[in-house]
Hints:
By secondary structure, the protein is an alpha+beta fold.
Amino acid sequence: xxRRFFMRAGLALAVLAPLTAAALAGPKISVENPHARxxxxxxxxxxxxxxxxxxxxxxxxxxxxEGDVADRIELHTHxxxxxxxxxxxxxxxxxxMEVPAHGQTVLKPGGLHIMLIGTTRDLKPGDTFELTLVxxxxxxxxxxxxxxxxxxxxxxxxxKMHGMDKK
Length: 167
Ligand SMILES: [Cu+2]
């Protein structure tokens, strides 16, 4: 065996060891402060927010949210877009939400959110509903989401974002 072999073997070990450790430790997902805003007026569109925490050594991704509270449940974000020379905020569906190792991802109004399209029941402040979050590595995490009152400023903000104030 020559020197080159040992160097290669050493390199392979150096690369493999951290990977194995990470795979064993994996992500450790928890969900804090879940809450939802009720639909606007007679609309059937609501949004859920929360903090996705990961105390593990490996990043994970929220890839899907499931539940019977709405016909369609989508992962959304907001982007700033130029329209007629003005910057406006628009919603866009995203394929996943990354949750970094030893970090967190905050879903909040004006940013990432879970969109409930075609709500199947009344959602009033004080009500709760179940959501199942599906993570790429951690698998399914069931949460209970309380519906909270929407503030006047937020309502205005939300109407603007959904383009409802332009008639
Ligand atoms: Cu949305």
